[in-house]
Amino acid sequence: MSFELDDLSAFVAVARAGGFREAARVSGLSASGLSEALRRLETRLGSRLLHRSTRSISLTETGARLFERLSPALAEISAALDTVHAQTDQPAGTIRLNVPANVARTVLPGILSPFLTAYPQIRVEVTVEDSFVDIFASGADAGIRYEERLEQDMIAVPIGPATQRLLTVAAPSYLSAKGRPRHPSELLEHVCLRLRFSGGAPAMWEFEKNGEIIRLDPPGPLLVQPGSACDLLVETALTGLGIVCLFEDWLVPHIRSGALEVVLEDWATPFSGPMLYYSGRRQLPPPLRAFVDFIRSHQSPTQ
Description:
Layout: H1 5-17, H2 20-27, H3 31-45, E1 50-52, E2 57-59, H4 61-85, E3 93-99, H5 101-106, H6 108-118, E4 122-128, E5 142-145, E6 154-158, E7 163-164, E8 166-170, H7 172-178, E9 192-195, E10 205-209, E11 212-216, E12 222-224, H8 230-238, E13 243-247, H9 248-257, E14 261-263, E15 271-272, E16 275-279, H10 286-298
Parallel strand pairs: 3-4, 3-5, 9-12, 9-13
Antiparallel strand pairs: 1-2, 5-16, 6-16, 7-15, 8-13, 8-14, 10-11
Helix pairs in contact: 1-2, 1-3, 1-4, 2-3
């Protein structure tokens, strides 16, 4: 039984995007064209691959099994085609990265601009997700996470700053009205603006000093999931409502301007910076190889 590769690719694109409209936006194809490709594929298979409603789609059991097998297979085909491109002077193709929001905001801007300038035939697609994901099931070629959240059997390369900190900050107006906490335990008496995980549980605030570790679940009127919503936490802190704890790089402009002040800095212990990770079991496509080599050559021990 023969199948058109484009129809198989259309199915993977729709399944990965969770809908025809989003798949059309990402792929550059029309929603009607994708729908027709799915109709042809289901007709040839004699089996329904998607449950469709007016508002959403979901994979059938058959569709889920096919998606699980097709995703890596199509990735291998893409890698093979990229290998052909590598015979030219410049690598060409697409790199798909899955990264957390703070990396997208504070690390990638300083890296992608010189990289894409050096490799004009490479395109980088970035998906921002803070939760743990299987990079290959998500369609990514590589991911960026912190060491404690790396997948097994992966090669990891430092990217961005060698160390980072989480800082606790508040607006001067808040500190004038509510006082400045001198010990993490005092945060339980303050208004705290916090992140929560995708499952709904608030992210604990952790502090360390001289071997003493304190983990807190402080009260607060505002919870947001990581991502661009972190800007909402910062903007709310700027109004003087409460205290926020975020990555230092995200907060630096406001700290330098005096709009936010650091509290409990002696409890902010540095930790290892983010890592670019990818499978060591598969041959790297030339665009990803170029990116890895670029990161390694531009990464300084003190960065």
